[in-house]
Amino acid sequence: MSEDPLLEQRRALPDQPGVYLFRDARGRVIYVGKAKSVRKRVASHFSKAQVPSSPGHAEMVATVEQIECVVVASEADALLAEQSFIKQYRPRFNIRLRDDKSYPFIAISMDEDYPRVYFTRERHRSNRVYFGPYSNAKRVRATLEVLAKVFMFRSCTGTEPGRRSGSPCLDYYIKRCEAPCVGYVSREDYRASIEGVIDFLSGRFAAIERDLEARMLAAAAEEEFEQATLERNRLQAVRSLLERRRVTSESVGTFDAVAVAADGRDANAQVFQVRDGVLSDRQSFYLANETERELAEVAEEFMLQYYGAQSAIPALLVTQGELSGREALAEALSLRRGGPVELRAAERGEKRRILELAQRNAHLALDQERLRSERRRQGRVEALEGLQQALGLDVPPIRIECFDISNLGGTYTVASMVVFEGGTPKKSDYRRFKIRSLQEGVPDDFAAIAEVLERRFAQWERQADISPHDPAYDPSFAALPNVVVIDGGKGQLAAGLGPLHGFRERGVAVVSLAKRIEEVFQPGRAAPLVLAHSTPELQLLQRVRDEAHRFAIAHHRTRRDKAMTSSLLDELPGIGPARKRALLAHFGSPDAMVAASSEELQAVPGLPAKVGRELYGHLHRAG
Predict the structure, then answer these.
(1) Closest to 499 (Cα-Cα) out of 459, 463, 453
(2) Rounded mean pLDDT of 417-429?
(3) pLDDT (tens digit, 9 = 90+) per residue, 211-224?
(4) Do 67 and 111 sit in the same domain of this protein?
């Protein structure tokens, strides 16, 4: 009898520092870990499985089918490698920031002669300076508002400042911009203002105050009173902002206080950023802790993820005393910072007071999140129960599927299928369809609805003969809905009843929702069901319908733009895949590209001026 393959893999693991990856039966990475000894650490996971510390840990161990490892030189290298793998694979059972793809950043386009300072949620351009991630988009926009008043950087988009008229915009006249577009400020002076923005976002507040005060006094001494007044107003704006945020004396210096609270599978991390005694920002991040790991491990993984995205790491981090692997973590962060980083457990004084404040905020945030989750859950229950009663169903409609059609004059006709389970979107089960049976240019929503619903039922029948382990198995099509919602009125409902006859025989309710006064049409009933707009059941139907509409329009636009791009850009001289992407990224759509002037085409980043001129000539010769 052959030995367990997983046991053989565990025995072959090295007794050295490194990173290990757990994979499931489909080859997906479900967990990444690091250890001084990979063999001993992996063995501890499986020994805990005999008496699991949490349901999540037991589920993870039961899912493991393959173990891989990478040996590194030290424990600090293992920490950095672990975070690199976590960022690459986003494993389900690791500590991770919720919705970490959508956290806001402040970006500065240093690759441009006159850099822009702008709000963004992406961080992939190597020639841009990024500050963040931030946890509150509203505060980021408020910060940008203050920075615009003080440093007067341009708000126009595009690589070059200005607009086609060649005259300054309103920002210049209200003292929000120094008008680099018409040469009212030199490139060097404008860059000096941008350096001030970088200093501010880096927390060098004392230096900014001294610089603004010196400029104010110098302008007054030269009797340039208008400039002196402007510098005074800037200085007052900065001081007003800093005084509201000052939490301690300037002598306390610069540091981050990091505190984490955990409860079950949920955790919250608070980062209080103190710069020259000023609380420059407070970040709050919710974390997924599927295996209910200990607080010290949660804090360690959070700090590596958070500071891995930071452009500047302070030299001092004040942390909770129970932080594990303090020396290795400090070494890893020092390597990332390019200088020493000290992790200190504050025991007294102002630093301890600020850390305790961060800890209280972390626990409060968890309590508030739990309360919000309970309210949302109760609201979903009420909506499902109300919908069950309104439609006369035997059970609450746990799974709702909604279908919508999108086209433009009968062209590029597509359909969407969105799924709500338990009253919330299940995006992994969304599906898109291209309508095949219609003649191009002839709109027929009824025929399109009939086709997509016929294909939906056929897919359900087909999935019944496929094993769940087969790659062809589709869990979305294999599921039987409780309610099918069609976007439309009586006509759309009538078109869908025939194709869904098999579903209806199995107890699936089929209804349509008309937009005019939000009427619900049901089979066999002449009069529509009109629900009060304040009822949670109608609001749930509206959310489902609106999501199907959004998803269908997005698919239609993608198909239309792809077709337009294929027919237009693929035939242009000197335009390959990279330049095609550059053109679409710069103009946003093929229509905008066609309407562009020769000068605008020549100014596209990554496109040689000669190619831009030839492109303009080709487009206009072709009409």
Answers:
(1) 453
(2) 92
(3) 888 888 888 888 88
(4) no
Question: Domain holding 26: CATH number?
Answer: 3.40.1440.10
The pLDDT tens digits for 25-61 are: 888 899 998 888 888 888 888 876 555 567 778 888 8
Handedness of CA 554, 558, 561, 567 (dihedral sign): negative
* Cα 89-95-96 angle, rounded to 5 deg: 65
Who contacts 335 (Cβ-Cβ below 8 Å, separation ≥6)?
76, 80
Could you tell me if 447 and 530 lie in one domain? yes
> How far apart, in whole angstroms, are the C-alpha atoms of residue 540 and residue 546?
10
Given 512, 531, 560, which residue is the final one in a domain? Answer: 560
Q: Is the dihedral of CA 408, 590, 432, 90 positive or negative?
A: negative
Give the H/E segment covering residue 448: helix 445-463
CA 537 – CA 547 distance, rounded (Å): 16
> Is pLDDT above 60 for 1?
no
Q: Is 448 exposed, middle or buried (0-12, 13-18, 19+ CB in 10 A)?
A: buried
Do 522 and 581 sit in the same domain of this protein? no
DSSP state of 2: P
Place of tokens 């004392």: 206
Structural domain span for residue 409: 399-560
Asked if 530 and 517 count as a contact pair (C-beta separation under 8 A), the reply is yes
Q: Which residues contact 201 (CB under 8 A, 6 or more apart)?
A: 106, 131, 147
